[in-house]
Design a protein that fits this description.
Elements (H helix, E strand, L loop, with lengths): L7 H16 L7 E2 L10 E3 L2 E6 L7 H11 L3 E6 L5 H9 L2 E6 L5 E3 L2 H84 L3 H11 L2 H7 L9 H22 L8 H20 L10 H25 L15 H4 L5
Parallel strand pairs: 3-4, 4-5
Antiparallel strand pairs: 1-2, 2-3, 5-6
Organism: Cellulomonas humilata
Protein name: Restriction endonuclease type IV Mrr domain-containing protein
Length: 337
């Protein structure tokens, strides 16, 4: 029957065969050729060709030969409502044609081993695709979950770092504020003492330069007990505070940009930082004796550099009134013409 002469039931059979090829045979690209098609095939797809017969008589060998010739190297499938002749079945098996019988109620079954093999292969391929797709979905879900967990950990770590940075910045501001307040107090006291005794600044710097307190504490750092450490650190800190006050009084505002002042200020800051570390500031738990000793020795090195700069910055003592040398008497006489 020509394509234009097919009755509606035949068209329904073609659409049923199309659904069967897509769902049972896993040929999702199969489609009905439609009315007016130039080819003698009812269903076509990638590597797939099929015919559908809706007549009452069994399909014979000639129809199979026509399908084989039209299909070429494609997988050839024949759907018949009335079955196939025995000769047709034997010929189909010999030439690898899959035969399916179907009913008007929408049921199709394989007729020859080639059709059974085609169904089994389709089922195996479908299971494989489902398994691969399931593994892919599972892997992507696992990767997505791991990525989300990683982002959460990174966000938590960033938040902790930000909090820690904020705490450290606040602690540095607090320490700087305490140092500034201490320096202000010591400077005011020193200025008052200078008002009373003018030579107080020189005497203070001389006392600091000849003091052995810082070096003595550094030398005995390994032998300090836990009870003696705070007192030793506080004593050295007091020496640094006095030196910082002397530096402020000694240096006028116009000389704050000199190398001497910057070197002295850096020595004070490094020394106070070493004392803070030796005192356990910012540390959790017990501070090891080795750390205390190393920090006190670091403070001693800063102290030596500091007092050296203070001594160099101290103005030279005034020599007072020095009498002018007497001129020889013969040079003071007036000459006569």
């Amino acid at each position: 029957m020509s394509a234009t002469g097919k009755d509606p039931q035949w068209r329904d059979a073609e659409r049923f065969a199309e659904r069967h090829a897509r769902t049972v045979l896993a040929r999702t690209d199969v489609r009905v050729t439609g009315p007016g098609s130039a080819i003698e095939l009812d269903l076509v797809g990638i590597d797939f060709a099929a015919r559908v017969e809706h007549r009452r008589s069994p399909v014979g060998r000639q129809d199979l030969e026509d399908l084989r010739a039209a299909a070429g190297s494609f997988v050839a499938v024949f759907y018949s409502r009335s079955g196939f002749t025995k000769t047709a079945v034997l010929w189909a098996e010999e030439h690898r044609l899959a035969l399916f019988g179907y009913t008007d109620t929408g049921y199709a079954s394989p007729v020859n081993p080639c059709a059974v093999e085609l169904v089994h292969r389709a089922q195996a391929d479908s299971e494989h695709h489902v398994r691969v797709a399931t593994e892919l979905v599972s892997r992507r879900a696992t990767e997505a979950r791991q990525a989300a967990e990683r982002r959460e950990r990174e966000a938590a770590a960033d938040e902790l770092r930000a909090e820690d940075d904020a705490r450290q910045a606040a602690e540095r501001r607090r320490i700087q504020r305490v140092r500034s307040e201490t320096l202000l107090g010591r400077t005011v006291v020193l200025l008052l003492q200078i008002q009373i005794v003018p030579g107080t600044l020189t005497a203070t710097i001389d006392r600091l330069a000849h003091s052995t307190i810082v070096s003595a504490v550094a030398d005995s750092a390994d032998r300090l007990s836990m009870g003696d450490r705070p007192h030793a650190v506080a004593l050295v800190r007091s020496m640094f505070d006095d030196a910082a006050a002397a530096l402020e009084v000694l240096t006028p505002p116009t000389a704050r940009d000199t190398a001497n002042y910057r070197t002295s200020a850096q020595a004070i800051d490094r020394g106070l930082d070493a004392l803070d570390a030796a005192d356990g500031l910012g540390s959790v738990g017990h501070v090891a004796p080795e750390l205390v000793a190393s920090q006190l020795r670091q403070a001693d090195r800063c102290w030596r550099a500091l007092v050296g700069e203070l001594v160099k910055a101290l103005p030279a003592p005034s020599l007072g009134d020095v009498p002018a040398p007497r001129r020889p008497r013969h040079l003071t006489r007036s000459s006569t013409v």
